């Protein structure tokens, strides 16, 4: 899985924005930003349609991620929901399919649906989202649960709680952590302390926030940008090296957790 991708939440909501949204995703693919994260929930399928248009003719260049609603995550429901997503995305396969958050359907049913899809070649891998440590432990205790490839959770400089136990647990089991809302929906980029650190390092706040995430083992990040200049800026984070001194400074300004905390979600 690529370490850096593009989020699509709030895309596909207004028809007039569609050409711009398609263009920004295409510009990201052109630059090599190969992972695209979507969900059936986003604009009730509208975001997946935008992605479908953006990747037309270049499916092999992208690593495609989508998510199933918890209420669709029964054994049969997950298969039907995936078919609908594939149709909107105009493709025959997803690279990664996630349970968007934990619902009432027993996890064993969802796993069975995911495995059916995997065996049919409709998805290459499956995972979860917004699962805390106890959810992960329960999942891993169910037959087939060890096939989980990723857990997509809220993770950014201002929200480091997962470092206490969830991130180490995922690492131990070889489960990738996908950091969503890496800029806290943009709020982090208005943080003056982050700006000061970034200016001193000669990078933008967005680059520093992403470079810090990407420096964590087993972590991928999926910032959302509707401005092509922002996509370009975000991609440059891959070239940013964080010195030991800068990392220590970051930890001072944005401290790691000192104990367990409930998993936050947006
Ligand atoms: N699994 C889940 O439950 C879950 C929950 C939330 C999000 N997600 C996923 O994670 C993705 C990202 O999270 P998010 O959309 O909440 O927010 P985000 O990526 O933390 O922040 C997006 C905001 O940052 C701005 N931005 C992006 N790059 C920038 C740059 N280089 N310089 C300045 N501003 C920049 C964007 O502005 P412009 O739009 O103007 O470029 C936008 O306002 C979502 O799109 C979605 O795919 C998943």
Explain briefly what this protein structure is.
By secondary structure, this protein is α/β, with parallel strands linked by helices.
SSE topology sketch:
Layout: E1 5-7, H1 18-31, E2 35-37, H2 46-54, E3 63-68, H3 75-89, E4 96-99, H4 107-120, E5 126-129, H5 133-140, E6 150-154, H6 166-172, E7 176-180, H7 192-201, H8 205-214, E8 219-221, H9 228-235, H10 244-253
Parallel strand pairs: 1-2, 2-3, 3-4, 4-5, 5-6, 6-7, 7-8
Helix pairs in contact: 1-2, 1-9, 3-4, 7-8, 7-10
NADP nicotinamide-adenine-dinucleotide phosphate binds at residues 7-9, 37, 100, 129-130, 152, 180-186, 189, 206, 222-227, 230, 233-234, 266.
What is the β-strand count?
A: 8
Distinct ligands, ions and cofactors found in the model: NADP nicotinamide-adenine-dinucleotide phosphate
Distance between the termini: 23 Å
* Structural class assignment: alpha/beta
Assembly state? single chain
Portion in helices: 25-40%
Summarize model confidence as the mean pLDDT: 98
Strand order, largest beta sheet: 1-2-3-4-5-6-7-8
Largest sheet: 8 strands, parallel
Roughly how many Å is the radius of gyration? 18 Å
User: Which consecutive residue ranges, at least 5 long each, have pLDDT under 50?
Assistant: none
Please write the string of helix (H) and strand (E) elements: EHEHEHEHEHEHEHHEHH
Helix count, DSSP H or I runs of 4 or more residues: 10
Instruction: Name the beta content range.
Output: 5-15%
Judging from the principal axes of the Cα atoms, what is the shape? globular
